Amino acid sequence: MTLEKREDFNKENITVTSKRRIFNGFFKIDEVIVDHDCFDGGRFENVRREVIVKCDTVSILLYDPLRDELLFIRQLRVPLIEREERRSPWTIEIVAGTIDRDETPESIIIAEAEEEAGVEIKKLIPIYDYFPSTGGSPGKMYLYLGLCDLTNAGGLYGLEEESEDIEAFVISREAGFELLAKGMLDNGFTLIAMLWFQLHYRDYLGKPI
């Protein structure tokens, strides 16, 4: 099979023979069985996969271009308790939220910035839309830079009814880059946002919002 033919693979090269919900908790899991064409011209049949069904998500790196400061949040991530190499399951992240209602990613992340950090976003700049875990879930992440005033930002936030315990804190851009260099920003959306920001911060530094 030629390279051109392989690149032309699409949903017509797959037959879904079975799909059923096998777990229906906060995360939902579907068992999907497919037949699909192979690169060598053959075909696999009855391939079983488990798909985690969850909402799309949105996250934002909050930056004050006049103060040259960034805002991060710190919170407990229970799954990381299982990682023996981590001393702590509390992580440093950027603000994020779940698109679990009929609103745009932009409107949801504006609300999340207020809820998790008490910050009003003045301007949204799209960074990337991407799929964080294509082997396990079709969920999509929408990633933004948010220009804002961080003069009085920071503190404790979160919704008690959702057992959220969030610390928001502001640091200089240089300190944020140091966290990145030391490997302390080790979750996907925060890492991608900061790597992008390293390349583009000069486009916003010192400019009024």
TrEMBL record:
Obligatory cofactor(s): Mg(2+)
Substrates-to-products reaction catalysed: ADP-D-ribose + H2O = D-ribose 5-phosphate + AMP + 2 H(+)
Transmembrane segments: none
Pfam hit, one: NUDIX
Class in the EC hierarchy, top level: hydrolase
Record-annotated Nudix hydrolase domain positions: 53-198
InterPro entries tied to this protein: NDP_pyrophosphatase, NUDIX_hydrolase-like_dom_sf, NUDIX_hydrolase_dom
Tree of life domain: Bacteria
E.C. number(s) listed in UniProt: 3.6.1.13
Keyword flag Nucleotide-binding: no
Keywords, ordered alphabetically: Hydrolase, Magnesium, Metal-binding
Function: Acts on ADP-mannose and ADP-glucose as well as ADP-ribose. Prevents glycogen biosynthesis. The reaction catalyzed by this enzyme is a limiting step of the gluconeogenic process.
Family assignment from sequence similarity: Belongs to the Nudix hydrolase family. NudF subfamily.
Database matches in PANTHER family: ADP-RIBOSE PYROPHOSPHATASE, UDP/ADP-SUGAR PYROPHOSPHATASE
Name of the molecule in the record: ADP-ribose pyrophosphatase
Protein's organism: Ignatzschineria rhizosphaerae
